[in-house]
Structure formats: structure tokens, C-alpha cells
Amino acid sequence: MRRFSVEIIGVPFDHGVKLINGRPGARFGPEKVMQEFSKLLANKKNNDFLQNIEKVNCTNIIPIKENVKKTHEKVTTTIKKILKPNIIPIVIGGGHDISFGSGKAMFLAYKKIGQINIDAHYDVRPVVNGKITSGTPFRRLLEGKFLNGKNFVELGVHAPKNLKEHYDYVIKKKGTLIHLEYINKTSIDKALNKALSIAGKNTNAIMFDIDIDGIQKRFAPGCSAPCIEGFTKKQALEAAYIAGKNNDVKLFNLMEVNPLHDVNNKTVKLAAELILSFIKGLNERENNGY
Ligand SMILES: [Mn+2]
Predict the structure, then answer these.
(1) pLDDT score of 254
(2) d(Cα 261, Cα 104) in Å, to the nearest integer?
(3) Which of 32, 46, 63, 106 has the highest Cβ tally under 10 A?
(4) Distances (CA, A) of 10 to 58, 165, 194
(5) Mean pLDDT of 214-228
């Protein structure tokens, strides 16, 4: 019996990136990543990863022009309807602000949720003058009480411009930071399993995020805010696989892929591989997994 379905949901929206003065273009991410992913699916050697997968569907959520709040509401409503323990959405951004929309849907579906974020940045900026930027998703989830800080884990957070006040905010909320230095000294496997146990403690479901800017610029130049430092391609692929394999992970957000700044399509290809890696893990989940 095939046990899981995957719903790949594109949200071609980067207004939140513009509002933070980042490089726009992530609105083109979903289409490009889906194209590349369908090539991977068409490759017969990848069929071994799909024995337990009933189907992989691709759809888009049409954003509300320049309206971040309304677009997020649409994301929440749409994903809430899709979420079932055996239906795993993979959301492709778009700006990282969209994770607020999918996170709220997770809260409505599962009540107690955990969050793991692989990112160069904290993304806990406050909403100032009503501007919901791509740097705000986790603060909004925490402030809205959709997410308890005790179940919030950030991995990487290595951008040189990260502000002390955002670090302080995560600590005040009792969130966990696992820095890149520690991960490189130990392993991504160890760090992610630690993150999964924290995010999964007394919760019903975990949301897993990869902001592509968490990966080194040489592997992922096509993003809104690239960093020289970061995860390697291998670490990111392993993280996606481990998250996919964990029974508690019920949604994957893959954010900030920006084809306008890509080099030889390598960021888009990496994003497609990350999706496949996650699905490979999902395919290997133990028994009923839900
Ligand atoms: Mn981010």
C-alpha cells in the first residue's frame, strides 16, 4: 500500500523581500524549481524512491498583488485544507515570510507544532509600520501563539549582519539556536536529530524550513540574500533527507530560491534535489508513520 502523497505548492510571491530591500525575483522560484523537479521525477533511476508515494502533485497559490497579509491568509486557508497526516505539503517560495502562512495552517491542523529552520538569518524581525517583510515569519508565529518558543530551533544563523536583538529575542522566547560552527564540529545528522527532538517534544507535528540562503553562495547563488558562509550542498541534502524520514515532520518549506540571480541554474537544480531528498526520506518512513 502506498502511504503518502506529496503536494508541492508554489507561492510565486516576493513582495516581502522587496519590503526588506532584498533582491526581488523569488516569485519566479516555484515555476523553475517545479520544472527541474519534474525532470528528476522523469528519470527512472529515481523511481526507487517512490514505492510508498501515492502521488506527487504540483499546484500554485496565486498571490494577492503586493498584499502580504492577504497572500498569507490565502496560503493558510489552502494548506489547511490539504494537510492530512498522510499528505505532506512541500511549499516553494517566494519570500520566507510565506512560512507564516503555512505555519499558521500547521497550527490550525495540528494544534501543537514545532519548527526547525535552516537559515543564514533568524527571521524574527518585528513588523514595523505594518510592513510584513521576509524577515518576520517566526516572530509572527511566536507572537501569534501559533508556535511555542520551546519547540523552535534554528540551525545555521551565520549571516554576518544578524542583529544581537534578534538573538536576544529567540533566547527570551526559549528558542534553541544551533550554530553552524557547532554543526561543522559535530555533524548535520547529530544537529538535526537534536533539533527534531526539541521541536517534537510535546507537539503533534513539525514544520521544516530550508531558506536557500543558508547554503553557501558557491552552491546557491540564486537567492535574495546570499552568504559566503553556510551549509554545504551535501549537508543540506542530508538535512532534507533526515527531515523527510522523520514521522513528525508534516510540512517542508523551501524558500527564497531566486532564479534571476542564479548561475547556470544551479540553485534551482539544488532546490529540486532537496525536494527529491526529502521525498526519499519520506518514502523510507517506518510503518504507518502517522
Ligand atoms: Mn529566511
Answers:
(1) 98
(2) 30
(3) 106
(4) 8, 32, 29
(5) 95
C-alpha 194 to ligand 1 mean position (Å): 21
If you average pLDDT over residues 151-172, what whole number do you get? 96
Residue 51, pLDDT above cutoff 90: no
pLDDT score, position 247: 95
Tell how far the Cα of 157 is from the centroid of ligand 1, in angstroms: 9
Ligand 1 geometric centre to CA of 225 (Å): 9
- 134 CA → ligand 1 middle, Å: 7
Q: How far is the CA of 287 from the centre of ligand 1 (A)?
A: 33
pLDDT at residue 49, rounded to an integer: 80
> Rounded distance, CA 121 to CA 83, Å?
27
Chain mean pLDDT for the chain: 96
The CA 3 to ligand 1 mean position distance, Å, reads 31
State yes or no: pLDDT of 288 exceeds 80: no
This prediction's pTM: 0.97
So where are the chain's domains?
Answer: 4-283
Query: 42 CA distance to ligand 1 centroid (A)?
Result: 30
Q: What is the mean pLDDT of residues 246-262?
A: 98
Beta bridge partners of 210: 118, 254
Distance from Cα 51 to the centre of ligand 1, integer Å: 33
Residue 72, φ and ψ in degrees, nearest 5: -65, -40
54 alpha carbon to ligand 1 midpoint, in Å?
31
Cα(33) to centroid of ligand 1, in Å? 18
* Domain spanning 4-283, CATH architecture: 3-Layer(aba) Sandwich (3.40)
